[in-house]
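<backbone_tokenisation>
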Amino acid sequence: MSRPRKLATTTILASAFFVAGCGSPGNASAGSAGASSTGGVDGQPGATARAGSSYAIVPAAEVTAGLADVQKLAADAKAQLTSDPAAAKQSTKAMYDRWYDFEGTVRKNDKSLYLPMEDGLAAIKAGVEQNDPTKVDRGINDLQTSASQYLAKFP
């Protein structure tokens, strides 16, 4: 199995375990964005949103702005990596916080592009944590490629 495929598989499995452990079905309030009346996410009974993410569905303009913000924060993290690793970690956290604002829309619209974006974000985070600029570059490239394809399909 190739390294990117292993990373994708690992990310998917880790996400599944994390989502499954976030709580029991029905613990989302009726007013939670992305939660169905059965307590699920995206209409899937029993699926719950992970901490920090509502899987909210937002307008296309919010996704466009969000992807630009996420890419800028990723570039900031890369630029800070050698001179200020703590700031790079803060930029990575901010990148994920911003991603959580609109990821539900990306996920709903195109899972085949959502997963590579998630993998890119994970590679950026891992690269920052490991002080590995090459890994950060790979993550940024994967994120940018998938984001560009997404925005071409969902302007």
Remarks:
- The CA atoms of residues 123 and 138 lie 7 Å apart.
- The chain has two domains: 1-50, 56-155.
- The first helix runs from residue 3 to 21.
- The chain has a mean pLDDT of 77.
